Amino acid sequence: MNLASKPLAGLKVIELGTLIAGPFAARICAEFGAEVIKVESPSGGDPLRKWRKLYEGTSLWWFVQARNKQSLTLNLKHPDAIVILKQLLSEADILIENFRPGVLEKLGLGWDVLHALNPKLVMVRLSGFGQSGPMQGQPGFGAVGESMGGLRYITGFEDRPPVRTGISIGDSIAALWGVIGALMALRHREVNGGSGQVVDVALYEAVFAMMESMVPEFDVFGFIRERSGNIMPGITPSSIHTSSDGKHVQIGANGDAIFQRFMRAIGRDDLADDPSLADNAGRDLRRDELYGVIDRWANATPLAQMLETLNGAEVPASRIYSAEDMLSDPQFLAREMFLSAKLPDGKPFKMPGIVPKLSDTPGGVDWVGPTLGEHNQQVLSSLGYSSEQIAALRREGSI
After folding, report:
1. Closest-CA residue to 283 (of 319, 326, 254, 261)
2. How far is 372 from 38, CA to CA, in rounded Å?
3. Treating both helix axes as pointing N-terminal to C-terminal, what angle do 303-312 and 256-265 enclose, rounded to 10 degrees?
4. What are the residues whose beta carbons fall under 8 Å from the beta carbon of 33, sequence distance 6 or more?
5. How does pLDDT run along the chain (399 residues), one tens digit per residue?
6. Sheet holding 122-127, edge to edge
7. Residue environment code for 333-362, b if the CB has 16+ CB neighbours within 10 A, otherwise e
8. Does 284 qualify as catalytic in the annotation?
9. Beta bridge partners of 36
10. CA separation for the pair 66, 179 (Å, rounded)
11. Quick one: three-class SS letters along the chain?
């Protein structure tokens, strides 16, 4: 795909960060056409390169998380590397960083310095607790943000300790807020005649912002939402049920008309016609009874028949998908949610497609995550460094 046809073409993004939140935010920018230069330490680079399943020594996650990015190695403890970084930032549109607050300031790269260097620069700062407050200097990963932000408290079953969601969702949510903030700052800069500004995203606040009505429910009623397993508290019926062949299905029949269609489809006209179940409040009072009815039906019905019945009655439902299920699913395939790519040795593999879908200027993947320092020569040459100067920087340990 031609980079110029993507919506963020012409933007230059410098990524200073490792692992998940910052790199995921930069990945989104790269997928939609921004020139993203990922700055890594020469000694090993981003630890994500070695996380989870490795293929010939490199994480498969890395090939996705760093797609469309250029890898530049800089030893930020070396003054020549700081000079190079300042050159890059002087002409950049966005800086994305997820160091602990204070790290960039110690390197002489605080906001006051960078804003004077490049008044148009938008600085996205992702950290555990934000750039202010009594906890600002504490380390904080996504799991801590999920805990403090309220997500872990309400996730799991009531008779067991809290559980994680299965992915690093706190980091990813923070990354999305970072991109949203960057685009709003760019809008202000380019349309309202403003200058660059700081987008300050705390992981715990990014999670907290997703917590629906949790705060006013406590403030007004003193109600603390607790863990409720697979059901939606106060919204009935909506839960996961198991088929006779051991497959799990999410069923959301909590709309009034949907509930009636569902009950008729499983032969329970008596419940469909029961006036006490005509609205959600009435159904929630008889929640255990209704879930028992649905469980008995599901436990006696194979998956294929369950889905046929539910779809025929226009009841929102889905089996619980594994990666194997997704790769053969017609909806995923029709929406091009798997892209074909090649690993460095030429082995083909599938990676996730692009979200969201833009009708006129869609995102795309032009290359997978690069090798460490793969673009050193290219980036430094664009800044005016000669081959001899680049070789000297390498000998001195700057890159």
Report:
1. 254
2. 10
3. 130
4. 3, 4, 5, 6, 7, 8, 9, 10, 11, 361, 363
5. 455 689 999 999 999 999 999 999 999 999 999 999 999 999 999 999 999 999 999 999 999 999 999 999 999 999 999 999 999 999 999 999 999 999 999 999 999 999 999 999 999 999 999 999 999 999 999 999 999 999 999 999 999 999 999 999 999 999 999 999 999 999 999 998 889 999 999 999 999 999 999 999 999 999 999 999 999 888 999 999 999 999 999 999 999 999 999 999 999 999 999 999 999 999 999 999 999 999 999 999 999 999 999 999 999 999 999 999 999 999 999 999 999 999 999 999 999 999 999 999 999 999 999 999 999 999 999 999 999 999 999 999 999
6. 69-73, 35-40, 12-16, 94-97, 122-127, 198-202
7. eeeebbbebeeeeeeeeebebbeeeeeeeb
8. no
9. 13, 69
10. 16
11. CCHHHCCCCCCEEEEECCCCHHHHHHHHHHHCCCEEEEEECCCCCCHHHHCCCEECCEEHHHHHHCCCEEEEECCCCCHHHHHHHHHHHHCCCEEEECCCCCHHHHCCCCHHHHHHHCCCCEEEEEECCCCCCCCCCCCCCHHHHHHHCCCHHHCCCCCCCCCCCCCCHHHHHHHHHHHHHHHHHHHHHHHCCCCCCEEEEEHHHHHHCCCCCHHHHHHHHCCCCCCCCCCECCECCEEEEECCCCCEEEEECCCHHHHHHHHHHCCCHHHHCCHHHCCHHHHHHCHHHHHHHHHHHHHCCCHHHHHHHHHHCCCCEEECCCHHHHHCCHHHHHCCCEEEEECCCCCEEEEECCCCCCCCCCCCCCCCCCCCCCCHHHHHHHCCCCHHHHHHHHHCCCC
**CA-based nearest residue to 149, from 225, 202, 200, 222:** 202
Which of 171, 256, 273, 295 is flagged as catalytic?
Answer: 171
